[in-house]
Amino acid sequence: MLRFSANLSLLFTELPLLERFSAARECGFRGVEIQFPYETPATQIKAQLDLTELELVLINVPAGDLMNGGEGLASVPSKRHDFIDAVTKAAEYAEIVRPNLINVLPGCCFESESLGQYMETFQNNLAHAANVFRDQGIKTVFEAVNTKDVPGFLIHNCEQLIQALEDLQHSSVYLQYDIYHMQTMGEDHLAFFQRYAERVGHIQFADAPGRHQPGTGQIDFVNLFKAIDASGYQGWFGAEYRPSVSTRDSLDWFDRYCQPPSLTARVPHKHNP
């Protein structure tokens, strides 16, 4: 059976973050991921994970100004020390919340003549992050992001994704494959997984165009999920879409692939001794 995680940065945003865990559990999810959880104390996140018995699949390393249109941290030569600080922050947070994976966003390069220097910086920074997280028993992933939504993103297609991985040659670094971003860039998902399924540590998905729930765009998720499952991929599928309706009303796709248990089994009851 396919394993789906709810990205709590985009799903259940009708609720405060700490209430999204129980909402995800009630809807049948067994795992969650959070893009940048750092404004919430790690102990509070850990308490919700324990209460709901949800697995924390993934968090991101802090990315500086990336989400506000900037270059981010991971590939910018002048921000090397800032990136090291971000990795330290992520590692300290992860020591409490214990994610399976930590994602390093490559960030952007807005000047073509600097691409080589930025890529070299990213490789060095990714190796540093992977070494730190490996010592915690956590795998590192990185992803390609489409340049229509995020102009200048350093790694934005499958060829670059694979090349960066092969250049690094690090045993605990894997790919994060984002179906929405790669669909937007015109990539062939089936061909990619036929060749590289074992190199993928995590998948995220949304329909395209629009980045909403499956069934709102052009992607044939029924056959795509079947093909990925048959490829030998062993990881989670992270639902990282922006619901076009309420989150609960956007989950029609979920019932096709993962039949949730009865409501009484969804949320464990905690008994006082």
Low-confidence parts, pLDDT < 50 over ≥5 residues?
259-273
Tally of individual helices: 10
Return the structural class.
alpha/beta
Largest sheet: 8 strands, parallel, barrel
CATH superfamily name? Divalent-metal-dependent TIM barrel enzymes
- Name the helicity range: 25-40%
Strand tally is 8
Sequence of secondary-structure elements: EHEHEHEHEHEHHEHEHH
**CATH architecture field:** Alpha-Beta Barrel
Per the CATH scheme, the topology name is TIM Barrel
Proportion of β residues? 5-15%
The domain count comes to: 1
The coarse silhouette is: globular
What is the CA–CA distance across the termini? Answer: 35 Å
CATH class: Alpha Beta
Radius of gyration, taken over Cα atoms and rounded to an integer in Å: 18 Å
Considering the chains and any ligands shown, give keywords for the structure.
273 residues, 8 strands, TIM Barrel, eight-stranded parallel beta barrel, disordered C terminus, alpha/beta, 38% helix
Topology:
Layout: E1 4-7, H1 17-26, E2 31-34, H2 42-52, E3 55-60, H3 80-97, E4 101-104, H4 115-134, E5 139-143, H5 158-168, E6 173-178, H6 179-184, H7 189-196, E7 200-205, H8 221-230, E8 237-239, H9 252-257, H10 263-266
Parallel strand pairs: 1-2, 1-8, 2-3, 3-4, 4-5, 5-6, 6-7, 7-8
